Amino acid sequence: MAIIRKLAIAVLVLVLVAGVGIYFLSRGDTADLSVDDVAGTEPTLQEPEAESFPTVQIAKPVGWEDGELPETAAGLTVNRFADGLDHPRVLYALPNGDVLVTLTRAPKSDDDGEGGIMATVRGWVASYLFSEAGAAGESPNQIVLLRDADGDGIAELQRVIREEGLDSPSGLSWHDGTLYVANHNAVIAFDYELGADSVIGEPRKLMDLAPGGGHWMRNMEIHPDGDRLFVAVGSVSNIGESGMEVEEGRAMIWEYNLATNRQRQYGVGLRNPNGMDFSPWSGELWTTVNERDMLGSDLVPDYLTNVPVGAQYGWPWLYFKDNIDRRVETPMPAYLMEYARNPEYALGPHVAALGLVFTAEGHRMGDAMASGAFIARHGSWNRKPPSGYDVVYVAFDERGNPQGKPLSVLTGFLNQDGTTKGRPTWVEWAGDGSLLVSDDTAGIIWRTVAPEAEPGAAIARVSGERLPPPRELQDPRATFEEDYLRSQAGQSN
């Protein structure tokens, strides 16, 4: 009887703990600011209020009815380029007009029992969130070829061209007969000629990647010169709460040199970098980044930023350059605040910014969207009210700097009752100048275009005169003394 009584008490305690958890999860923090208030080049950053329990408001996917379409910005139309796909994520347009898409979900995780009860609880919570958000299930591990041969804006061919050797694949790149694929744990390469309806042969491993983890997508971009790959790897954790040892090789962008077969850390302190593209103004790499959670519904905004080589963006200790996250237990590296960079552009709190493309030559999105970036905001799970669930356009000035607030391109994914028809995930240019958008929970690739627009011109590269090299070394103190004496002589006249 004593054993039965103890078991009953244990069950009662678990029920009470679960009830308390559900109570707090059902409350959460309601935003004081609009998404636009926390977006742009000068976002409003409130004082942080750490949460013991995360704010949770998940938009459960219900799908699109027959004939339903997203809402478009003025002058644009939208149609289904392809549908019936199993969780499509990353889109990649090949030079011949074919489009590749990875069908993928998170890799299986093995519970070795070493994480303890809290790790088990975190696993349950993550499983619940994945399920409610429409991301649960086994990864299809497929690359699908989409081909619109007759040019009517609909891909009449959908063909699985590769399954073997894929393990939660995300990023894709192609150059000179080689298809590069970023699995969750490695970058691999296949021989692949344009127009082929299958990818055959054994993969070649180029580099290992930190596997799985909380942020499992491994997105990739090839340099326009075709000689380097850039691979984005997100963190395991929110703020390094599992220790920084498990974050080794994560929260950064890697550069892999295809000529030397060597890799290096290119940019670090990026909690979860995702979409990448090269600025048409400068040629510099830019990325979208998902920032940290559990500081309330108004913090911290995801962002869009350039990534110069060696850049440091402060995660987990700092956000937006000099804002200290005092929840982080690992000591901050010396001088981090002095050399951490401020992100260029905030995209709003918890919007889950993913796919990114800059305006490209031949685009048909109209003059109003002829100089900027298009970004898929996948949508929040931890903000009240929800944020994201759209595709936005960020205008850039003539020198390649973002400005203003995000402008809507595609909306209507989020329903008034809190459910969602789908979640925009990735963006890519089709060969005809239209913008393709993957919708992972709905299994659809959307195509949007300004049908009356002529193909847009390429953005001019910004260039200038180099500073002439100094012809001799000078002591800066002597120059200062000369200037000081000259100024004093001028004051005495």
What does this structure look like?
There is one protein chain. This protein has 493 residues and is α+β, with helices and mostly antiparallel strands. The chain contains 4 helices and 29 strands. It has a 5-stranded antiparallel β-sheet with strand order 1-22-18-17-16, with no helix packed on it. It has helices spanning 2-27, 116-132, 336-339, 476-492, and strands at 39-40, 71-72, 77-82, 88-93, 99-103, 142-147, 157-162, 172-175, 178-182, 186-191, 204-208, 218-222, 228-233, 252-257, 262-268, 273-278, 285-289, 301-306, 311-312, 318-319, 323-324, 345-349, 353-358, 372-377, 390-395, 407-411, 424-429, 435-439, 444-449. The chain has a single domain (31-107, 137-464), classed as 6 Propeller (Neuraminidase), CATH 2.120.10.
Task: Please write out the topology.
Elements: H1 2-27, E1 39-40, E2 71-72, E3 77-82, E4 88-93, E5 99-103, H2 116-132, E6 142-147, E7 157-162, E8 172-175, E9 178-182, E10 186-191, E11 204-208, E12 218-222, E13 228-233, E14 252-257, E15 262-268, E16 273-278, E17 285-289, E18 301-306, E19 311-312, E20 318-319, E21 323-324, H3 336-339, E22 345-349, E23 353-358, E24 372-377, E25 390-395, E26 407-411, E27 424-429, E28 435-439, E29 444-449, H4 476-492
Brief synopsis:
By secondary structure, this protein is an alpha+beta fold. Helices cover 13% and strands 29% of the residues.
List keywords for this structure.
single chain, alpha+beta, Neuraminidase, 4 helices
